[in-house]
TrEMBL record:
Residues 475-497 are annotated as: Disordered. It holds the Pfam family DUF4178. It comes from Hydrogenophaga pseudoflava (Pseudomonas carboxydoflava). Residues 63-200, 276-413 form the DUF4178 domain. Coiled coil: none annotated. This is DUF4178 domain-containing protein. It comes from the Bacteria. Residues 481-497 have a biased composition (Gly residues).
């Protein structure tokens, strides 16, 4: 912090005697860096509350002591909390501004949200009274309830303005609106703490003093597959599910390595067109393919099944995005921070000033999974989906009982995708609805012939899929309806603050 604005306080840890610093007068708790005692500040002394886990062995580019700028105000990262439940975990970084104000930099579906405390007049509903999908007016703004969940503290570091009792479960509610705002209500305290924020790219924060790119020592993240005993490595700290590359078993890691490793055998493994681990360049960033899903959908009142593929992409600073391979083309989508406003009847949705038209509504089911995922993935997971479009821009909603997840993105040309992942030699396998013979105006004899040939090829592929060689054919792109399909969603990964 700048010289002269910092009011630093330091006292010996009641557990080991090491100095425990406080940079903000509003910080009431801290975690000793030496013995990991959680302590509370009481006047000019510290009282020990107990010992708390320190499990932050991750790839985060952030670290305590890093400085930055937000809306012209300088700040320092002084602490962090890791929260979670059986389905997900997320990290909240404690921010202290030079003027001693508080802020929070938290993870949101692989992106980052910068929030500040928000005072609310009147009382808030009890946690049990919140319902996903309903509207709520807060501070003059209208929000949609995006998630209602329970969480507990898993780990903590540094200086904190609050520290919920470790292991104690408390409620958290997420509100979002079509301006991209996100409001978090934390029921760990009374009255509940309210934080209002918006998504922010890390580069805009002008961060200095970030963690290096060196490979971490991570021996504790290896284990043997519970089905075939093959040696496996978990590469992402946030991983909740992964598949075994040796036997294709889908393994549940939500209880943590060393806990009960539940697994399910996946028959008829599907080979992704873009291999796991491949690195590509899209939208000026480097993305690694870390996960893959094969999904299917059915529209209400119809028996016909259509299918699509989703590749989970990871970038250290940008977080997670999804590369979607559907019958009508490729698209790149990411979880939306806000929640679009849906018109009565659900035919249109508005987000960040853009209006989208409903294209499809359908039930989606996960059929096959490979790689690592930051949420708990299971075969047979079902969501209710709605896909909207505005030209090349896309919007998708996935609904489950406890969460509504929106994703926003845009279409990609198939040649762009093949080139991005250096698979130009297989570019014909990437062609979808964006490059069909009927994509131009007008008909010619040549186009009619090409169309007939294309239909015959589809029929042959459907009849001969059992003999498909994935080395030379795109066996993973099952055909459903011509020109339809889903470009949608984020595969509802559970709630991540």
């Amino acid at each position: 912090m700048a010289e002269g604005t910092q009011r630093r306080y330091e006292a010996p840890c009641p557990g080991c005697g090491a100095p425990v610093p406080f940079q903000s007068a509003q910080s009431t708790h801290a975690v000793c860096a030496y013995c990991h005692s959680s302590v509370v500040r009481q006047a000019d002394a510290l009282a020990r509350l107990g010992r708390i886990a320190d499990e932050f062995t991750d790839y985060s580019p952030l670290k305590i002591g890093a400085t930055g700028q937000w809306r012209g105000k300088a700040f320092t990262l002084v602490g962090r909390l890791q929260l979670g439940n059986a389905a997900a975990r997320w990290t909240e970084w404690q921010v202290v501004f030079d003027d001693q104000g508080l802020g929070s930099l938290s993870e949101d579906n692989g992106s980052f949200v910068f929030s500040v405390p928000r005072k609310v007049s009147g009382s808030l509903p009890a946690f049990k009274d919140w319902r996903v999908g309903r509207s709520h007016v807060l501070g003059g703004e209208t929000f949609a309830v995006g998630a209602v969940t329970e969480a507990s503290v898993l780990a903590a570091q540094g200086e904190l303005s609050h520290l919920p009792e470790p292991g104690k479960v408390f409620g958290v509610v997420e509100l979002r609106n079509d301006a991209g705002s996100v409001c978090s209500i934390d029921y760990a305290s009374e009255p509940p703490a309210v934080w209002l924020g918006a998504q922010v790219p890390l580069d805009e924060l002008q961060l200095a003093g970030l963690a290096g790119d060196s490979v971490r020592k991570d021996e504790g993240r290896h284990f043997n597959c519970p089905n075939c005993a093959a040696r496996l490595e978990v590469k992402l700290e946030t991983t909740k599910s992964m598949s075994c590359p040796s036997c294709d078993a889908l393994i549940d890691l939500s209880a943590g390595i060393g806990g009960e490793l539940k697994h399910a055998i996946q028959d008829e493994p599907v080979r992704p067109l873009i291999p796991l681990g491949t690195v590509g360049q899209l939208r000026g960033a480097s993305w690694q393919v870390v996960g893959y899903q094969h999904r299917s959908g059915t529209e209400p009142g119809e028996d016909e099944v259509f299918a699509w593929q989703e590749y989970l992409l990871y970038n250290r600073k940008e977080g997670f995005q999804f590369l979607v391979d559907a019958e009508d083309g490729w698209s790149l989508v990411k979880p939306a921070t806000g929640a679009p406003t849906v018109a009565s009847g659900g035919k249109t949705a508005t987000y960040l000033g853009k209006r989208y038209q409903l294209q499809y509504s359908y039930r989606a089911e996960t059929q096959y999974v490979a790689g690592e995922f930051y949420w708990k993935v299971e075969r047979g997971q079902v969501t209710e989906n709605s896909d909207y479009a505005s030209g090349q821009h896309l919007l998708s909603l996935e609904k489950s009982r406890d969460e509504w997840t929106w994703s926003v993105g845009e279409r990609l040309d198939s040649a762009t995708v093949a080139k991005a992942f250096k698979l130009d030699q297989k570019k014909d396998l990437f062609k979808r609805g964006d490059a069909t013979p009927l994509s131009s105006d007008g008909w010619s004899v040549g186009k009619v012939v090409l169309f007939v040939v294309a239909v015959l090829i589809v029929v042959m592929l459907e009849r001969g899929c059992d003999d498909c060689d994935p080395q030379v054919e795109n066996c993973s792109s099952t055909s459903g309806r011509w020109g339809g399909g889903s470009y949608g969603g984020s595969s509802s990964g559970g709630w991540h603050k």
